[in-house]
Amino acid sequence: MKPFIVASTRPELIKLAPVMREFDRVGIEYKFITTGQHYDSELFGVFLRDLKLREPDYNIEIGSGTQAYQTATAMVSLEKIFEEGMPDVVIVEGDTNSVLSASLAAVKLHIPVAHVEAGLRSNDRRMPEEINRIIADHCSEVLFAPTEVSEKNLLDEGIPHEKIHVVGNTIVDATLENISLANDSILEKFPEDFLLLTLHRAENVDKIEILSGIINAIAGLGRDVIFPVHPRTKKMMEAADFEKHENLLMTEPLGYLDFLALLKNATCVLTDSGGIQEEAIVLNTPCITLRTTTERPETISAGGNILAGVVEGKIKEIAERVLSDKELYDSMKNAKNPLGDGKTAKKIVDILLELHKHGALLIKSPDFEA
Ligand code: UD1
Ligand code: UDP
Predict the structure, then answer these.
(1) Within 6 Å (CB) of ligand 1, which residues are found?
(2) Looking at the whole model, is its pTM more than 0.90?
(3) Average pLDDT of adjacent 10-residue blocks, the chain of 370 residues
(4) Do domains 3-169+340-357 and 185-333 have the same CATH topology?
(5) 14 CB under 6 A from ligand 2?
(6) What residues does each domain of the chain span?
(7) Cα of 101 to ligand 2 centre, how many Å?
(8) Which ligand has an atom closest to residue 11 CA?
(9) Whose Cα sits closest to atom 17 in ligand 1?
(10) What is the CATH number of domain 185-333?
(11) Which CATH architecture has domain 3-169+340-357?
């Protein structure tokens, strides 16, 4: 089997590294492609280093731009790479513009797409990611849903049952594999008792009123807050004249092993990230999600995550409750991870190899008979 793996942003590298490692283990060669959506060392190179990944075989270098620019530019080059290489399967993960480009380019060449982390839905169509994940799912032949909740979302949209495999989420593999390597030395740079904050969602950071409301709420808790700032957020904070808060300890985006150490040791994480909601429950760190919806509702029903919205007063009220109500805090800390057992990458590779072996890794014509 000849797989092509497209991984172009920080979370895609983290979540596809276990799949690449599993292909290495079973001796299957693959091509690794990045569109270049994330290009700065702090969002890409550092993750190759921390996850011990090789340099990509292809880098399209699309860089930053509008939604259409990124999607279209990546598609044109991916089409050429796929046409020349004719992989048996194109593997994508998640919901970025690069995932949309790769899924569309592949399916139109009749190359089967395997979507890792299929079936997540926030039901918020203002999010570019929601559009991307819906289209990627509908372009895919093999859909690796993390849970039964995501499987149901796919079935409700008419995706045939036989295309869907509930396998857990590779974030569990990545977290369990890497937590013992986490750089605990970073903890020496910061106070012992701290909250961890990340923000990068367009809906939150591209609107200054929302961004400042969130930051004021969290700084207003009066605790030390470590805040690794995503470049999208940094650009916004530099453009607007932001109120300074002494207890807000801003840093550059951190490497994966530094970040894992902070996440594991944080009293609580406050975030609008998708992946961090998942990692938090694996590491038993209570999570407060700074959004009005989440495509990870399993983390909420499991009791490890609370949706706090984006309004200053409400965020402050919820965070104060989590931090002062010991029973609630402990129940969040002890919530059970609903995202799998850390063996998801092996399941994914086994399923793909099995389908390939039986000639079933293909886009079937309507009159196909096995
Ligand atoms: C993208 C994904 C988002 C994912 C996130 C992971 C889409 C629509 N969004 O959001 O789903 O959660 O990656 O972090 O695909 N920039 C740099 N250096 C870089 C890359 C970006 O400075 O290496 C800056 C640029 O100013 C750019 C901005 O960050 O305009 C946003 O980057 P982009 O990749 O478009 O979106 P993210 O917000 O990173
Ligand atoms: N992360 C990191 N350093 C940081 C912030 C996040 O290594 O400073 C990692 C984190 O461990 C998680 C991933 O980046 O696995 C999440 O990426 P992001 O929040 O950018 O994207 P999302 O998951 O929302 O798509």
Answers:
(1) 9-11, 37-40, 43, 64, 95-97, 128-129, 200, 231-232, 235
(2) yes
(3) 98 98 98 98 98 98 98 98 98 98 98 98 97 98 98 98 98 97 94 96 96 96 97 92 90 98 98 98 98 98 98 98 98 98 98 97 81
(4) yes
(5) yes
(6) 3-169+340-357, 185-333
(7) 21
(8) 2
(9) 231
(10) 3.40.50.2000
(11) 3-Layer(aba) Sandwich (3.40)
Establish whether residue 87 lines the binding site of ligand 2, counting it when its CB lies within 6 angstroms of any ligand atom.
no
- The Cα 239–Cα 34 span in angstroms is 30
Q: Provide the annotated active-site residues.
A: 200
Cα of 221 vs centre of ligand 2, distance in Å, is 23
Q: Give me the pLDDT at residue 364, please.
A: 87
Nearest listed ligand to the Cα of residue 179: 2
> Does any ligand 2 atom lie closer than 6 A to the CB of residue 274?
yes
User: Token pair of 128, please?
Assistant: 């570019």
Asked whether 16 lines ligand 2 (CB < 6 A), one says no
